[in-house]
Amino acid sequence: EKGGYDHFMLKEIYEQPSVIKDTYRGRLLANEGIIRMAGIEDNLEKFLNADRIIIVACGTSWHAGLVAEYIFEEFTRVPVEVEYASEFRYRNPIIGPKDVVIAISQSGETADTMAAIKLAKEKGAFVFGVCNVVGSSISRETHAGAYTHAGPEIGVASTKAFTTQITVLTMIALRLAKAKGTLSNTDYHMYLQELELIPEKVKEALGTNDIAKEIAATFIDAPNCLYLGRGYNFPVALEGALKLKEISYIHAEGYPAAEMKHGPIALIDEQMPVVVIAPRKGHYDKIVSNIQEIKSRSGRIIAVVTKGDTEVRKLADFVIEIPETSDALSPLLTTIPLQLLSYHIAVMRECNVDQPRNLAKSVTVE
Ligand code: F6R
User: Fold this and answer.
1) How do residues 232-289 score in pLDDT, each as one tens digit?
2) In what order do the strands lie in the sheet with 224-229?
3) Active-site positions, per UniProt (predicted)?
4) Selection from 113, 136, 139 nearest residue 54 by Cα
5) Which ipTM score applies to this complex?
6) Hey, which of 44, 62, 150, 252 would disulfide with 164, CB 3.0 to 4.6 Å?
7) Helices 59-76 and 160-180, interaxial angle, to 10°?
8) Shortest-distance atom of ligand 1 to CA 58
9) How many Å lie between the centroid of ligand 1 and the Cα of residue 9?
10) How far is C-alpha 90 from the chain's CA centre?
């Protein structure tokens, strides 16, 4: 059942190279410069005419939506809003026929997301689903959709669903960018090629398992933990913190790194582990100065960096190296060591990794 792994969560983390490939199989033809997904092709006009895209989801799926916001706006120049389904449904949202709503749900059964979809439909919006479970309620309720093809996710903490959601959403953004001409030809082809290389690079990122375990041993007794990232990796910081909270019961918060000085920096002392996502591309110099700020307050720094990094290494207590990719695709790699880190911390704390207390795999009540 667990394929030789101690937990479903670990199995699912390790499945990511192959399920990401399953997600883009037949849809991404990098050498031909083609992305084709039936649900998008059949509704291309709706997407192209949209004044804005509203993404609704909960939990980890909401974090995938936040990553998608950065990607969609950069690639397609269409304004995107990302909403917690539970907030959206109760606040009389301004929404109409010129809006496209993308609902993201691994289970396809989340009550709040379902209610948000029904409301958006009533108001005339076109609703597109990104679900994992085939034939699920949300996949049936939406006008069209694209499955993530991650296979069954048994561990309550979502892992492979997150990376495959990002993969699907990236493909949608690239398809729309091609139709709109909002990405240069060079960039468009570069992203297709890069996306095709992601499974190999995720495999390489899984090689951080040993260092993640070593770091976990140092932090098992930490009462709190901070996760910081910028740009595309800000949502990854949120997701890293959520993973730690839900399976290890350590309080953790994710923040955009620059928000530190607006409050959370007050928390930093030598007891506080701070996980910083600092890949070479993106806002590297900015994040290096954020790391210096933490260092000068004696925070303990765990940095996720691009292979070969030397600058952050000088400042951090631990570095975790991941392969290089473009800034926009980096969440697919930076997420991996954070999943492994929470996993090992939870195992060392003897928590029930696959079935954390108080949590259910699909939240069918509001
Ligand atoms: C976190 C987690 C939850 C779900 C959330 C939405 O690891 O699993 O936060 O992401 O309950 O679930 P779905 O995606 O099934 O709608």
Assistant:
1) 999 999 999 999 999 999 999 999 999 999 998 889 999 999 999 999 998 999 999 9
2) 251-256, 224-229, 273-278, 300-306, 318-322
3) 361 (for fru-6p isomerization activity)
4) 113
5) 0.99
6) 150
7) 20
8) 6
9) 14
10) 25
